[in-house]
Amino acid sequence: MKVLGLNRTVLLGEWRLLSRDPAAWVALLVLTAALLGALVQGLSREQAVAASLARWADTDAAHMEAAADLARRLERDGGDISSFRDPRNADVVGRRLGVQHLALPSTRLGALAVGQTDLHPAWHPVSLESRDRLLAEGELTHPRRLAVGPFDVSFVVVFIAPLLLLGLLASVPAREREAGMLPWVVMQGGGFGSWLLGRVLPRSLLVLVPILIVGVLAPLLQASPDGVAGDGQTLVRGLIWCAQVTVYLAFWAALALWVGTLPLDGARSALALAFAWLLFVVLIPSVSQVALDLAHPQPSRMAYVDAMRAATDVARAEGSETLARYLEDHPELAGETVDLDDFFAQRLLVQERVEDELAPLSAAFEAQRAARAGQAAWLRLASPALLAMDGLADAAGTGEPRHRHFMDQVHGFHEQWHAFFAPRVLSGERFFDHEGVPGFIYEKEPLSRLLPRSMLLLASTSVFVLILGWLALRRCRSLPKVIGNG
C-alpha cells in the first residue's frame, strides 16, 4: 500500500507540475497542430483519390455501354467505320473501348498513413496490351513531392512525437540529481524505480493520448468503399495501429528512462537523447537504404527495353508465319476462311511471343524485387523507426504487402481478360458480347495474413522496449551508485 500511495502521490504531483509547465503546453500544442494538419491532409487526399476512382469506374462503364449501343446500331443500320474504332471488333473492345481501370480501395484508416500509395499508382488499367506496358501507366505522385516525402499522421508519430516526448523526459531525473533531491526520494520509500516511472508515465501519456484520439477519429471521419462503420477488419486494423503507436512511443520512453538513470546532467542527457533520435530515425534508415541498393541493385531497364525492341522486330517480321503456326495448333479458331494477313490477330500473337521471350528478364526483375524485400525485412530490425513505419502503413492498409495482394489480383484479372478476348480476336468474327466482358471484384486481404505480420513487428519493437527497461531496472537497483554520482 505504501508503494501504491507513493505512486499515486507522484502521479498527481507530476500532473500538477505538467499543468504549470509552459514547455508541456507548447509540446501539446505543437503535437495537436501537427496531428490535425496531417489528418486533414490525409482525409483530403483520400477523398480526392476516391473521387478519381469513382470517375474512372463511371467512365469505364459508360464507354462499354456506348460501345455496345454503337455495335448494335451499326449492325442494324449499317454504316462505314474504321476497323480500328469498330466496336464489333473484339481487339478494339479489349484493347481500347472496353479498358477497365482496377483500383485498390482504401481502408478506413488510409488517411493515417501514405505508406506506399505515393510510389504505386492508385489504379491499373487492364486491356489486351502487354502487362509491362499497362503497369507503366497509372497515376503517380509528382517526383518533386516524392523527394520531399509525404506528411501524414504516421510521419508525425515516427518523426515528431519522439522529439516532443524526449524533450519532456530529457530532464528526468537529471534535474533532481543536480539539485541533490535523489536521497530525499529514497527516504520517502517506494523505490527509485517506481518514482522514476511515475515521472515518465504522465509525460508519455501527454504525447500518446492525442495520437490515439486521432487514430480513433480517422476511421469515423473517412468514408471508404473498403468497409463500413463497425467493420470487423477496420476495428482490427485500428487496434493494430494503436498498438504500433503505443509500443513505438514506449521504446522512446524506455530509452529516456534508461538515460535518466545514467550519471549525466540535464544537458548531457538531452544531447544523448537527441543523438539517439538522430541515429534511429535518420541515420540507420538512410544507411539501410544505401546498403539495400548496393546489395540488390535493380537489373538494367535499358537492357530490358533493348531486348523488347529486338524481340518485337523479329516477331513482326514473322507475323504471318506465327499466325499460321498458331492456327495449325488451334484449328477451331481458323473458321471457314483464314486471313493470314489479319492485322489484329498478328498483333496479338506478336505481343504474346514478345512476352514469352522476355519472361526470363521479367523473372529476374521479380527475383530481385523479392530479394530486396527480404533484405529490407532484416534491415528494419535495426531501428524501431523502420519497424514503426512499416507497421503503421501495414495497419492502415497502405503498405507493400497489401499492394502486392492487390497486384496478384490485377495479374490474375489480366489473364482472365486475355483469355476472354484472345480467341475472339483470332477467330476474326464480329463481337457483340459486350455484356459478357469480365468484371473485376476486389477481394480483401484476409486477417490471417495481416495479423502474423503485425504481431512480428510489434514483437520486434517490444524487444527494444524490454532491453531498455531491463537496463533501466538494473540501474535503479544500483541506487547507491546512481545517487553517489549526483
List keywords for this structure.
486 residues; mainly alpha; two-stranded antiparallel sheet; 18 helices; 2 strands; 73% helix; elongated
Q: Can you describe this structure?
A:
The chain has 486 residues and is an all-alpha fold. The chain has one domain. Helix content is 73%, strand content 2%. The protein is built from 18 helices and two strands. The chain has a two-stranded antiparallel ribbon. Helix 6 packs antiparallel against helix 9 and helix 10 runs antiparallel to helix 15. The protein is elongated. The N terminus and C terminus are likely disordered.
Q: How are the secondary structure elements laid out?
A:
Elements: H1 2-19, H2 22-77, H3 90-97, E1 100-103, E2 123-126, H4 131-135, H5 143-148, H6 153-169, H7 174-178, H8 182-187, H9 192-221, H10 232-261, H11 266-295, H12 301-317, H13 319-329, H14 343-379, H15 384-396, H16 400-427, H17 447-477, H18 479-484
Antiparallel strand pairs: 1-2
Helix pairs in contact: 1-9, 2-6, 2-9, 6-9, 6-10, 6-11, 6-15, 9-10, 10-15, 10-17, 11-14, 12-14, 13-14, 14-16, 15-17
